[in-house]
Amino acid sequence: MMKKTIIALSLLTLIVSTGCSDKDVASAPAAPATAAAAAASGPAPVISSILAKDAPSELKGYPFETAGQCSIDVVNSAMLGSAPEFTVNRTDGLNVDGWAFDEKNAAISPVVVLQLAKGEEHYYAMLGRHGGRDDLIKAFGKQDFANAGYAASVDIASLPAGQYEVSVIQKNAEKNMVCSTNRKMNLQG
Which residues constitute the domain of residue 151? Predict the structure, then answer.
């Protein structure tokens, strides 16, 4: 069952690519026609991540600046398309898949973090990197962007209900690049 979920998540990720860019990602290639083809391209590895109120140690000591490109494409196996909001029930958890990169330096940071913000409160969860994003090569013209994918299964059991701004943070050698996904998460339960 988990393998089918990961394969379905990979298929959905290949189909959807929207985000903080004004470039057209609608020209991204179609998803493989079969689950076997999707598995051959490598399903997204899903790491388990714990949500914390403190920024991860990897981000400490670096300034936070608005920068980078990012998107959250899939939440709990549902494609988000262009919807600016999505709803999650706390009991369902939060499984995310998307992409993020540093367009200025044409680089992929190994450190990528999900940030959920509700007013002055911020919550952070580490994300795992994955490749297989050939749609990003076509959309942005950089071979390395095929490895710009991220995914994680985040424990949100203790997160207070409400609406959260969703951002992705990447760390480069000089700063923490904060990219808004231009989406809000409504947490229920």
Answer: 2-188
